[in-house]
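Hi V.,

Quick status before I head out on leave. The structure for the redesign project is tokenized and pasted below; the design run finished overnight.
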């Protein structure tokens, strides 16, 4: 079998194994008070995601949104997980105040930890919040699992709990901002399969000029299970705080810029974007919050491959053309001129911005050429190269 046929076979095989009918996804909204009569009525609801068309991974993803946010505002990431075989719950929990607002200037060095533990477990630990056991994350999660099993038994939610005990070794905890910090704290004494922290942890003591002490606590979840994805220009929390916290937690690998890089991102667990988006809180939300997530020219989340990597599933396969072509673009990032070298003649090329809008096109008829990008605003762009055998796309950064 020729190399080309082998590549085609592997690409098609990977695609068949990893894809399922995304139109078959079932998304339900569940009011917390319907799962436990002691929980007061709330307008915002839990969201659940399940795709019966996918081969089940028998892993539960529990996602927690950030301060003031509701599950309906972050659907893209949970949908992506469900369309890859995960059972997914996105929790509505008590999140009307952030840990950093409550504790950033506190004289209690353990303030952040106590604040989070009370929200997670409902034990009276913090004067900064008032969450009882009924309204805790722990209770809301187990009651939601029971509700789903009772009302949707064919979806097999019972595999994730016995009585009031959750099978934590089958659970991935993920969260954005405040939710990401909760995920990391929960993993201190719960042996979860994986922790994914988006735009977090953000806990920093201004009083003691240090990252919150809980990030140094021993945890039963292994260091290798921690992953994070942040933005270098986060408007809510200093990236240095986030980086310091992840280093304390033992997040593996050097920090890796995902802009223009291919999955598996040097196998690092510490990922970040260096793109500075415009808009209030846009950088903070860009990693996972729906209204801020950048979309590609096909209307798909630009970070879908990053999300796949964080979930521990296969990256989307490269096309046969991408495997066959050898394309070099440098320097990347570039300030003024981009040099391109391809092992095939290029007929023409075009550049699109992060929204998929074409900003430049050129007729080339060569395999080595330069492109002036000095007048482009800073950001992420896609270079689309057309050859006789097809179209190849590669990202680059203008800085």
């Amino acid at each position: 079998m020729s190399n080309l046929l082998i590549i085609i076979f592997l690409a098609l095989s990977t695609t068949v194994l990893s894809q399922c009918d995304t139109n078959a996804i079932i998304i339900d909204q569940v009011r917390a008070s319907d799962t436990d009569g002691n929980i007061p009525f709330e307008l915002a609801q839990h969201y659940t995601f399940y795709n019966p068309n996918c081969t089940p991974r028998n892993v539960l993803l529990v996602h927690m949104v950030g301060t003031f946010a509701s599950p309906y505002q972050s659907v893209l990431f949970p949908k992506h997980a469900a369309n890859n075989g995960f059972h997914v719950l996105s929790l509505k929990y008590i999140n009307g105040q952030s840990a950093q607002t409550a504790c950033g200037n506190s004289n209690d060095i353990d303030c952040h930890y106590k604040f989070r533990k009370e929200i997670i477990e409902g034990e009276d630990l913090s004067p900064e919040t008032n969450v009882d056991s009924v309204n805790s994350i722990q209770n809301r999660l187990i009651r939601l699992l029971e509700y789903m099993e009772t009302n949707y038994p064919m979806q097999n939610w019972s595999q994730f709990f016995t009585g009031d005990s959750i099978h934590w070794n089958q659970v991935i905890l993920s969260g954005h901002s405040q939710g990401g910090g909760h995920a990391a704290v929960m993993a201190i004494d719960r042996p979860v399969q994986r922790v994914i922290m988006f735009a977090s942890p953000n806990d920093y003591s201004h009083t003691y000029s240090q990252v919150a002490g809980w990030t140094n606590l021993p945890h039963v979840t292994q260091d290798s299970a921690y992953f994070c994805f942040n933005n270098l220009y986060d408007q809510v929390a200093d990236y240095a705080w986030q980086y310091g916290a992840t280093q304390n937690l033992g997040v593996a690998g050097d920090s890796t810029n995902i802009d223009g890089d291919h999955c598996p991102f040097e196998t690092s667990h510490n990922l970040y974007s260096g793109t500075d988006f415009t808009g209030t809180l846009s950088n903070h939300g860009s990693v996972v919050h729906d209204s801020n997530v950048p979309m590609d020219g096909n209307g798909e989340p630009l970070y879908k491959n990053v999300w796949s990597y964080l979930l521990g599933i296969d990256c989307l396969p490269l096309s046969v053309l991408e495997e066959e072509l050898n394309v070099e673009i440098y320097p990347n990032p570039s300030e003024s001129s981009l040099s391109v070298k391809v092992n095939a003649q290029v007929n023409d090329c075009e550049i699109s911005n992060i929204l998929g809008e074409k900003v430049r096109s050129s007729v080339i008829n060569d395999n080595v050429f330069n492109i002036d990008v000095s007048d482009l605003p800073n950001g992420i762009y896609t270079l689309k190269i057309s050859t006789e055998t097809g179209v190849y796309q590669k990202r680059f950064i203008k800085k």
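Above is the designed sequence. The radius of gyration is 23 Å.

G. will cover questions while I'm gone.

Best,
W.
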